[in-house]
Design a protein that fits this description.
about 260 residues; about 45% helix; single chain; 2 domains; alpha/beta; globular; Rossmann fold; SDR family oxidoreductase; 7-stranded parallel beta sheet; 8 helices
Length: about 260
């Protein structure tokens, strides 16, 4: 399927590895120019080499630009918009807050979580949505978490901050921008084989006293698909949400979790 987005330009955050890189690669395969942002310069440059190799295989190679910056800061966002001013696609993504016991989190921990996982996406939406509407096309995809639908006890910081973003998007996605070709959706990953998952399982192992291998095996058994997801298939879902064909989907929370969520709705 031709997604109809070749030649568009995307900002992809947290794109040096994991799910962010999976999204960036899927977009490049569709001929989308990408500006990839992450804090770590070396991993980001390695990601760019991988993306450029994908781009080189296309008849009309899209460009790949690198911005090594902290997107949660005003300076980082300024750098991202200095690299390219008018984005057609924005994929918001930030590393989740650390797991733990809510009794141990002070105000600073909460503010940091909300800033990265709620306020930063809102700032990026605010900076791009009106331009998208004026041009008649825009796709914003927020990578959140399955914990928005089924909270995870040791991820309270994430549960709270990402749920706040979800509530905000539910309102703004249904404003006048919807009639101007702009969609805002959230993509909710379950258990994907990333560094984030490894950290979460290490936290579970510490809490339960089990070894990490046992925690991993038990976690996989709890997923109807019988496995963890991979960033490539996650990226493919993201690319579809950015496509012309997804223009009638907005304000939605798209769950990708191998069937783990047990609810009907």
């Amino acid at each position: 399927m031709d997604l109809g987005i070749a030649g568009r330009t995307a900002l992809v955050c947290g794109a040096s590895k994991g799910l962010g890189l999976g999204c960036a690669e899927a977009l490049v395969r569709e001929g989308v120019n990408v500006v990839v942002v992450a804090r770590g310069a070396d991993p980001l440059q390695a990601a760019a080499v991988r993306l450029e190799a994908v781009a080189a295989g296309l008849a009309t190679p899209p460009f790949v630009k690198v911005v090594a910056a902290d997107i949660t800061t005003p300076e980082g966002r300024a750098a991202a918009f200095a690299a390219h001013a008018d984005y057609d696609i924005v994929v918001t993504n930030a590393g989740g807050p650390p797991p733990g016991d809510f009794r141990d989190w002070d105000r600073e921990a909460w503010i940091k979580a909300v800033d990265a996982n709620m306020l930063t996406p809102i700032e990026l939406i605010k900076a791009t949505v009106d331009g998208m509407a004026a041009r008649g096309y825009g796709r914003i995809v927020n990578i959140t978490s399955s914990s928005v639908k089924a909270p995870i006890d040791i991820l309270g910081l994430s549960n709270g901050a990402r749920s706040g973003l979800t509530g905000f998007v539910a309102g703004v996605a249904r404003t006048s921008i919807a009639a101007k070709g702009v969609t805002i959706n959230s993509l909710l990953p379950g258990s994907f084989d990333t560094d984030r998952l490894k950290g979460t399982m290490a936290g579970s192992a510490k809490k339960t006293g089990l070894d990490v291998d046992t925690v991993r095996a038990n976690r996989q058994k709890s997923i109807p698909a019988g496995r963890f997801g991979n960033p490539e298939e996650f990226g493919a879902i993201c690319a579809f949400l950015c496509s012309m064909q997804a223009g009638y989907m907005t304000g939605q929370n798209v769950l990708a979790d191998g069937g783990a969520y047990p609810g009907t709705y």
